[in-house]
Structures are given as structure tokens and as C-alpha cells.
Amino acid sequence: MKIYKKGADASYTLGVFPTIELLKNQPDLVKRVVVHSSIEKNKGYPLIKELCEKHHIAIDVHDATIKKLSPKGNCYAIGVFHVYEKNLEEGNHVVLVNPMDMGNMGTIMRTMLGFGIKDLAIVRPAVDIYDPKVVRASMGAIFSLRVKYYESFEDYHNEYGHHEIYPFMLKGAKNIHKVKPTGNYSLIFGNESSGLDDSFLNYGQSVFIPHTELIDSLNLSQSLGIGLYHFTSAQFENKEVLR
Amino acid sequence: MKIYKKGADASYTLGVFPTIELLKNQPDLVKRVVVHSSIEKNKGYPLIKELCEKHHIAIDVHDATIKKLSPKGNCYAIGVFHVYEKNLEEGNHVVLVNPMDMGNMGTIMRTMLGFGIKDLAIVRPAVDIYDPKVVRASMGAIFSLRVKYYESFEDYHNEYGHHEIYPFMLKGAKNIHKVKPTGNYSLIFGNESSGLDDSFLNYGQSVFIPHTELIDSLNLSQSLGIGLYHFTSAQFENKEVLR
């Protein structure tokens, strides 16, 4: 296994927890699992063994591979998987236009899963979601989402223009507090530094998240968390306990 | 100037933007400003000069100091300031119990400022907010907040037990959607990995942010962003434009 490079046809999870998420959610894509010889004590290992056995996936004990792919140590399992792309399904979507930060991307995936939105469109140029840093930051959430890249927002809009489109912008026309979705919606967020350009004022209902003038803007993952909390509230507001 | 160590009586901003925030908001605490010889072209420099002149603060051109404190480059100004602690004021508070992540802490400070909450209590053990990494991540927001450390939550509670206390917990007794504050409140958040322990169920009205069972929990800064968005909504929901 080589260190991942953008465009490679296989990538890998780093660590026991994301490897379990991979095996649980995308077993058909797994090429093999590599573990460190000291994994025996790890309490996640029985589950890795069980899932690999169930899906006829080989487990190799190979410390040198682990060390090569995760030089900082503290990694006991690696799941090698085929890079894949899935078509989105009808339902609510998040659309990220030109996201560039790997750590952010992972957090965003996890937050989406937390609010039950499983379809993510990404408009290029954008971060490579199969980079092991994104996979790690997502804590495996990536394996429960459908993610599709588009060359332009127009391309996405041609497929999903029938959705309620909500671009999140500092110049947004409506206060998010005053907006409630009535059908399937797509929440659109721009790049970490520059946001969405003014052309997005022409799509659907642009919204802003009000805040004080003491900061320039909320950061992307905060805006997304707040946006999802607000837009999914009908689904969660009557829940009496978390679990 | 030495590289900052926890407990030192002076720390410093790294970069033009946070240095300006320091000079604008806490000029009395500034010991001096150090700039790189190539700062002349930087468009923030005239404002730094103006603020230093106004407050009689010396500007030293000293590339070696900049290089020592910011070895990665890309830093043109450093503001050296006395480490300070301020008493909290009456009003709404955020209380962080045992926060440990420097980057998170900076983001949290910025988000607080964005929602107009300027008082932050931190229960030790905790990250050192004067670490230049926190100052940088806060993008200078730290200089607009009042931050006070407490040795225990009891110590904070002895001072502010008359507030409405809302501990954010996975086991929280009430869905956040069902909770509205009626007076001054304190929002309590636990450590990044372990959250708040069960003893916090005994304080005020514990709340949970509902999410799917597909993730273990939202991360600390997401929870805080959502919590602030929700609790401050009365103040922002009628704003017609962001700026």
C-alpha cells in the first residue's frame, strides 16, 4: 500500500474506530485490513475480526505498513478501500461549493450524519474527500454518506433545481429564523474564506445567520451546524431523550 | 521576548489582524509591538502605526524576534501584552469545564463574540487561553471578552448560582428546543472528549441537543455554536439584514 495521493483508486482508514465504520457500512469496498502486531489488546479488535470474517476480508498483520501510512504511531488498524462515488438520493442535501479544508470536511460529514442528512454534493475545485485526513476527521461518517462531485453549481442545479434552494450568505435576503422548509431542500455553503459569490443571490431563498458586528462571519462548520440544527428542527424538536 | 510558556506574565499575538484587535480593545495591556522589516507593504500596517501612536506604544522592527516566535513565516507583526484576568460582569455567561483544545478554544471565543456573549468562565484543569495558539485561533476575539478561571464549578456557582444554569449533556433532562431562558443564564459545556459528568444533572435545567443515533455526540464547538444560536435567538430573530 502506498501513501495516498489525490486521484488514487484506493485509500485507507487510519485507526480502529474508522476501520470498524468502514467494515460496517461499506464492506463491499474493502480490499483488505492491515493491523499492527500489538492490536490484540485493543477492545475494538474482536469486532474487526468478526466483520472481516463475515465479509471474507483478509487481515494482514504488518507493522511496517502501519508505520509507513501512520508515522506518528497510535494507529493499530488500517482499512484499505476502493475509492467510490455514489449518486445522491432524493431527500435533503448539503451542497458545499469549493470547500478546501480537510479537517472541516470531516467535521461537516459527522454533523450531517448527526442531523440525518446523508447526501452531500461538492462543487469543484474542492478538497479530496478520500484523503485519509478527511476520512479520519470524519471519524468514519464518510462511509454512511452519499457524496458526489460536480464540476459546477449549474450541474447540480440541473439535477436538483426542483429542491428548495437555500444559499447561506452574509448578504442573504432572509434571516434564517424566518425561514422554514416545506419540501425537500438543499442547503448551499461556500468556501471557508470567501463564502458564496453574489451569483447565488439568484438561486432560491438566500439566508443569513444573524450575528453581532463584532466578528466578520461565523466559520463554515459553525454555520453548517447551525443551519442543519435549524432546518431539521421539525424532526427533532419533540424528541424527549437523546438515547 | 521569549517563546511563551504557561504561567508567563506576558504573551503575544502572531499576525497583523490579531495585533490590531489587541491594540483596539486592550491598548493598556500592550508592552510593545514588534514588526518584520517587510511589513511596509501590508495594508494593515497604517492602522497599527496609528493605534501605537495614539497609545504611545513603541514599534520595534526586529526580524529575528519575529522569526523566533513564528518560525513558519507569514507573520509580520507581534503584539506583546501583559497577561491579565478580568472579573466577569452580570449578564449571560458561557462556562467551559476542563476544555483542553487550543484551536477549539479560539473558535469558541469567536463564536461567543458573534452571539454577543462576552463573559467566559473556565473551570480548571484547562487550556491556557494566553497561549499564542489560542490567541491566534480566536482571531483576536479574546481581547473583547472577559475570561475568568475557577478552581471548581462550585466556585463559579457560589458567585453565579442566581443565574439560570443550563448544563449541556447527552443525558440532559430537556430537549433544547423546549427551553427558553427568562433571565440571565449560564450555558455549561464539558470537556471535548468526556463532556460533563453526571453531577451536573443536579444543577439548573440540563439540556440535550437532539441528533440521530448515527453519531456518538456533536463536537464541543458545534454544540456551543448551536447552543448560543438557540439561547440568543430572541435577540437576533428580527434582524432584517446582517449588515
From TrEMBL, chains A, B:
One of the GO BP terms on file: RNA processing
Keywords: Methyltransferase, Transferase
GO molecular function list: RNA binding; RNA methyltransferase activity
SUPFAM superfamilies linked: alpha/beta knot
Database matches in InterPro entries: Alpha/beta_knot_MTases, rRNA_Methyltransferase, SpoU_MeTrfase, tRNA_m1G_MTases_N
Pfam families on file: SpoU_methylase
Superkingdom of the organism of origin: Bacteria
Transferase as UniProt keyword: yes
Stated name of the protein: tRNA/rRNA methyltransferase SpoU type domain-containing protein
Organism of derivation: Kandleria vitulina DSM 20405
Lineage, top ranks: Bacteria, Bacillati, Bacillota, Erysipelotrichia, Erysipelotrichales
